[in-house]
Please model this.
Amino acid sequence: MNAAEPTLDIRNLRVTYARGIVAAVDGIDLQLAGGRLGIVGESGSGKSTVGRAIMRLLSSSARVEADRMMFAGMDLARLGERALRQLRGKQMALIMQDPRYSLNPVLTIGAQVAEAAHLHLGLRGKAAQQAGAEMLARVRIQNVARVTGLYPHQISGGMGQRVMIAMMLIARPRLVIADEPTSALDVSVRAEVLELLDSLVREQGSSLILISHDIRMVAAFCDEVAVMYRGRVVEKLAQLENAAHPYTRGLLAALPDPKHPVARLATLDRALLSQLETSR
Amino acid sequence: MNVIEVRGLDVSYGKNESTNHVVRSLDFDVRAGETLGIVGESGCGKSTVLRCLAGLESGWGGSIHVDGKPVSWRRTRDELRRMQLVFQDPFGSLHPRHRIGRTIAEPLRCMGQEASDQTVRAALIQVGLPAEFAHRFPHELSGGQRQRVAIARALILAPEILLLDEPTSALDVSVQAEVLNLLADKKAEEKLTYVLVSHDLSVISHMCDRILVMKDGIFVDEFAPGVIATGAAHHNYARHLIEASFF
Ligand SMILES: Nc1ncnc2c1ncn2[C@@H]1O[C@H](COP(=O)(O)OP(=O)(O)O)[C@@H](O)[C@H]1O
Ligand SMILES: Nc1ncnc2c1ncn2[C@@H]1O[C@H](COP(=O)(O)OP(=O)(O)O)[C@@H](O)[C@H]1O
Ligand SMILES: [Mg+2]
Ligand SMILES: [Mg+2]
Model:
């Protein structure tokens, strides 16, 4: 593989759901070579669909088209289900809003991290358990001995995300897609989960796509932010101050900011936005 | 002047070893015409406090006075009328198979009052919705529109106090801005008093005159919204919450 080759190279991705009249994702381009890309936008703008399309996790009734869909030199569009299963978890991983749905409900946390250690490090038995426990400690889980005996439904959302991150420390995927990873967490836990995600990505030189409705959080965390509106990326920004599109500017103005109190919050000029849409 | 005075409010769920002491001997006042904010993380007891105020909980200890008169676990119709609760998830709080018009008129019927089409139309219009929405079902509305309906329903009995439990937490920020503006307008027009509960410090500081920080069933700090920007000294937990909220 060529060193200059991007980890991810997506051109003109379009996704239409079976029942959808309009495309949920309507021609977007994403290139990523290491580093952290944020995808922001309001609910329904197509963020999760992009993440799931890259993971090839959309159901077969969804129509996915792209001019180019390359990951680590492989053509994602051409890979079979077997190859995809190999890819997922090993080379690319998805962190979702509620980690408890991503974990296996009938296996203890300890068994699942040990399984990851077996799969990715080739360890067995005690050694696998040991390696798993070490990773749990590294994501700052207190009392690892107790947590390894718990089932996914017995742990908090914050702990679940830390378990997910521990499994990725073992698997060392090249690309991590995190879809609203902190949205279900308490404010005081969010920062820690983001920090862990950050150190994971930095240490392993992985690429990260961070998907969230929280534009300020994403901008603080990512190198670049793609702003989605109705299935399209309306602009890509390195800094929020440079926002030029009326949608992005409207979103930012609508956020209450204690540092700049206002009597009335600005609201989106929806008429202007649909005018822009139709004149496109 | 205080419209609500709470002393020693105490709530426990469960019995014996499994007792969950959720609200621990709270004292606080709500002043006439203010917006009082309560901020805290999930499970700290915010909704329980609002439910006690609204008359939806029994078994609490301590005292609650409204306009100087004590209220108990059981409320008179007028006591219920004066304080209305708006919930986070308008989808969960609107009956899925009732048309919007019926939902909005429901509180009036419960009070044994007449609910004319005219009243319902006016209620919709005052929250910025078309009067024709009276014929729709909840699933035919967006999240923001449903929250407007919940606000219209809360206002129809001309209450003096609105208890707002995470009223915009389920909404997109652009819709949140519209709903918060609507709440500010209604407060000015109807001379209302608000108690607003949220985990979102930026919403709380935008809306409130005074902020109480709740943790594990007690208030650990109180400050004015301006304090967040200046970063003046607070209780450790409040400072942690502020730092975690604004990076
Ligand atoms: N499984 C599905 N079937 C049909 N439509 C869907 C499905 N999933 C999402 N959609 C639609 O696709 C659009 C984009 O959804 P999504 O990618 O989930 O947005 P976001 O993550 O930004 O909230 C929305 O209009 C949504 O209703
Ligand atoms: N009806 C109930 N029965 C038992 N426990 C309850 C009940 N309602 C709330 N709780 C518990 O009380 C605590 C506080 O809950 P709540 O007031 O809803 O917190 P918040 O609104 O701050 O998230 C939580 O631990 C919750 O599990
Ligand atoms: Mg999504
Ligand atoms: Mg609550």
